[in-house]
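Morning, I've got a small favour to ask if you have a moment. It would help a lot if you went through both lines with me. I owe you a coffee for this, so here goes:
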Amino acid sequence: MLDQSDLKVCYLNARSLHKHIEDVRKDINYSSMDIVIFTETRFNSSDTDNIYTIDGYRLFRNDVSQGTGPGRPYGGTAVYSRVPLKEGYPYTHNVNEIEFTIIKTESNPHLSIIGVYRSPSIAISRLLSSLRSVLDEDSSAQNIIIGDFNVNWMVESDRQSLYNLMVVQNHYRQLITGFTTDNRTLIDHLYTNLIEEEIEAGILETYFSDHKAIWASVRT
């Protein structure tokens, strides 16, 4: 049973949040969370924040440019928070065309929650170097790194380089163990260096995306 005082964090690749904001507003899975991170928002820079408000939450946008072509960009991250955040957070730390959004709360300022989105078109080597740069900033930090890595954790050959970096070299645990997409892949991951007693995690069904949501509850 989750404690009401726990910090509850959720992540979903929304597959076009601009189309599904009303679905999110009506879904108790998201309104029960303290922090919700969405990727593949596909927000345009011309979209105003009031289009995407959720009652009781503050919105932070890590939009990406749409390049030179018409239509909406394919990426973008949005963070919704109903708890006070540390001053200066969230902030964007996009590296190698991989989206990183860094979040800290006032109540637990020593814990970083890092939302990640890597497009499958971006080489895994660029993901690894980007993660190294984030991890090397403070090797003693407490972190939750959560997002869509587009690496199938179920396939050992696919995950090997990421496993070596996160688990072998940096001693993180990857807490998501079931399929996270309708294609029966596990590409949405949650890495943490918190001890087992401090965090639990799981998967939530989602009817408007082909990804499932993943969540963490942190003892505070």
